[in-house]
Structures are given as C-alpha cells and as structure tokens.
Amino acid sequence: MKLVYIRPFIHFTKSQRLGLFSLISFILVLQAILWYQPLWYTPEPLPKEAQIWLQDTSSESLVPPYKSYPIKPFNPNFITEYKAFRWGMSAASYQRLQAFRTQGKFVNTVREFQEITKVPDSVLEKMAPYFKFPAWVSTYKKGNSKPFPFAQEPPKKIVKKDINSATADDLILVRGIGPVLSERILKYRAALGAFVAMSQLQEVYGLKEEVFDTLLEHFAVVQPPVLEKIKINEATIKELGVFPYFRYPVSRHIVAYRSMNGPIRFEDLTNVKGISVEKIKIIALYLEF
C-alpha cells in the first residue's frame, strides 16, 4: 500500500499535536498522583461508636465456648474403625480385633483385649476406663482366659398366615409393602374371589421380586379356598370379562369358540385365543365346565 493513501490519517496539524501532547501529559501526571497517594494520604479516624463496635465484635465473648461431650462407656467388641482411630489404635490392632470377631468370639476382659489387639499400654490406659462388658461376663468363671462364646438365640419360627385372610395391616408389616401396594393386593384378591396359589401375587402391578420372596416367608395359601366358580359354557361376554384372566377380548374369544365348537372342556382352553397356557391349571380352578 502506498504511503499517499494512509498519510491523511497520520498527518496532524500543529494545534492537533499540541492537544495530543497536553492530553498525554495530563494522563501521566494523574497516574503519578494516584500511584504515590498512599505515601502522603492519611485516613480519617473512625468515629468513637464504630471503634467500640469493632472492639466488641472482636472479643472472645461472641464466640460460643466449645462444648465437650462426656465419653460414654462402650463395648470394645463393637468399636468402629473411626472410633478406634480416635482412641489411637493402629490399623493393624483394629484388624486383629476384627479377625478375632469374625470367628464368633468376643473379648471379655481388658487384659484379653490387649493380648489380641497388641495395643500399647498408653492407648490401653486411655480406653480401659470406658470399657463396658455385658453382665454375663462378671458371672463367667474367673481366671479363665478362654474367650466366652457368644450365645446365639435360635431363629424364631415364623408362623405363616393365610393370604386369603390377610388384612392391609398384616401386609404392610412386610418390608417393601406400603398402603398403595397392600390395597392393590386386596383388590386383586377380591377380583379373583381368593388366591389359589401364592404365585398369583406376582401378577399384582408394582410387586417386586424381592418383596414377593419376603411375602412367601410370612404368608401362604393355608387351606384351599371356597370359590364361586364361573360357568364358562353359560356366562356372557360381560360376565366373563369381570374375571381378571378373561378380560376383553379374551371373553369374546371364549364365547366365539363356544358358539362354533360347542361346550368348552378343560382341554379346549389351550385352543382359546388369549388364554395364558402357563396359567391354565390355575384358571381351571375358578371354572365350572
């Protein structure tokens, strides 16, 4: 690019050059004043009320004192890893105690605790005053260093209730079943008339497999229920449709098959469109042929 094209943009008159010089000089002087201001600037003293307020807020009286909680006695057999660390036990000592506990054994004396964990005397002196062993330890034979075996209670036998007589309150006691799910179970039981097999509970919407397994531990079909059977060869489409396994259009297929082939027998159920083959044996218990 030739100089002749940019010359009008860089050419200044004498008055313009003088103005630029004055502007730059003013900026430099102003920057120098601002830069050296801390050397000669003295802030004004704060009012007396503000000084008193600052003294009050900086006093220790505003800081709440640290509240120390008393150390409660504890059973060293159940000490947590964090608590063991706070007492000064090493990781190796804590692991020795856990390995001893996994054998189903319990520490019953202070001396036995040190023999198993190998904690130093300095740590034991801090911990021992807070050890609390069960009452049966004091009745155990003195001088016997053999660990006292943990007396496990025999598992309680669960008496299963009849699922067909269970109430909403009974069902809610099962872990995983709330008011909504218990109401669904009762409504489905009412629609069927009664449960003939526990597997039918799996057909309830929202019932998870783990909850169903828990139900099996507490409930059963204790005795065969008395059912009001459906006359499959006489019932209308509407009457059949009330039965949960014969919802429309299955009820229409039954009537159509019946009108074309005559009375339906048990072995004919597999030929009716829409009827679950896996559930035929259960369905047949509700029918009268």
UniProtKB/TrEMBL annotation:
The chain crosses the membrane at residues 20-41. It comes from the Bacteria. The keyword Transmembrane applies. This is DNA uptake protein ComE. InterPro entries: Endo/Exo/Phosphatase_dom_1, Hlx-hairpin-Hlx_DNA-bd_motif, RuvA_2-like. Pfam families: HHH_3 (PF12836). Keywords: Membrane, Transmembrane, Transmembrane helix. GO terms for molecular function: DNA binding. Residues 169-188, 199-218, 267-286 form the Helix-hairpin-helix DNA-binding motif class domain. One of its GO terms (cellular component) is type II protein secretion system complex. One of its GO terms (biological process) is DNA repair. It comes from Flavobacterium fontis.
